[in-house]
Write a structure and sequence with these properties.
Strand content: 15-25%
Low-confidence stretches: none
Distance between the termini: 62 Å
Mean pLDDT: 95
Number of helices: 15
Largest sheet: 7 strands, mixed
Number of strands: 18
Helix content: 40-55%
Structural class: alpha/beta
Amino acid sequence: MDITQLYHAQHAFFQTNETKSLSFRLLQLNKLEHLILSNQTALVSALRQDLNKSPTEAQLTEFNIVLEEIKFAKTHLASWMAPKKVNTPFPALWRGKSRVQRQAYGVALIIAPWNFPVQLSLAPLVGAIAGGNCAVIKPSPLAKHTHDLLIKLINEAFPAHYIQAVALTDAECDTLLACPWQVAFFTGSTRVGKHVLTQLAAHLTPTTLELGGKSPCIIDETADIAKAAKHIVWAKFLNAGQVCIAPDFILVHHKMAATLQAALIEAIKHYFGENPKTSADYGRIINDAHYQRLLHLLEHASVAHGGRHDDQTRYIEPTLLDHVRWSDPIMQDEIFGPLLPILMYENNSDIITPLLQKPSPLAFYVFSKNRAFIKTLMQSLPFGSAAINTCLLQYTNLNLPFGGVGQSGMGRYHGKYSFETFTYQQSYYERYRFPDITLHHPPYTQRKTKWLQRLLGL
């Protein structure tokens, strides 16, 4: 069926109310869990072909996160679905009760990116299922092998009128966006996110945008440099730097710059060897267009370490860049690759002033033992999420909402926040049958008005 027919089939199924029961939602979450557990070998192979991901990296960054989301949702779903009693004001609404309950939107659209094609297709789906929705998923065709496998597995596991994965090129995406989805979830670039939001606005579709940005990593003179270097190298060069919350650049106190650079080089060699090209744990760039974009940035930069590359395999070595200025080309947009610029600062204003002039990042990292310094940065700068003395790990806590602000996105998900993203608050007030007080009904006699003023405290 075409996209319009698919949308109407899912909308009709949603209106049967079958998706809304707790038992149905738990059954579908179990199906999704089984899909992942029984197909990990095939998924690892697809991820290796698309991004050269190692099995361990795939397990940590693709499968485990989704499986934890499913486990968390199954544990808490009954509580999330239960109506919540709220205070009923006295005396204005005396003899009644008030409740809030979260309801499914209807048919959800999920558009996933290529950098974590399994996780970022299926983690939002957990929220859609837990919320009681139907869903259409568009995986990214750039991760071709994973894209094709996901479509096959999802469409074998679920009926089309409930959940369906579709194969569309980016050029065909406007057909998808033209449908009146009840809720939408997009992960990708800010540029494409703006287009998606514009198209979905025609139907006033509530939309979550998980975008990106230039996530800073601040290192002051009190930081443990050796430990900081290990965390930064792992986070920056995971998936060959193709991570939306990777440290995009380092801003280090000038007294620690040389020590940091040496520690970063040591950590790179420790993790990936003298020649990272031969490491089984180091990824590749997704396609030629992104590879050439990164090489263009590299051509206009000063290389302190690394810089080697191979056109045939789209390999770019973990690379450190020095003598970087805020006006350089590499500092204008998110890098999304294994190039790490290092800038220096002397005082707090050298950090806060330029960062306030940049779009708000998705993530923010600080390495410091100075609590006052950390507090100043946290209070002065906007960002989606932060980690102190580590990187990326804030993303893995399902009790924390994840999302951006401003140019880095809107809306939150993970854990309960995924459930809330795919549901809306429905409120109701129920009046007890007796006594039936109607002082607030006309005609408004002088006596009624007097009693109303007493009851309302006027």
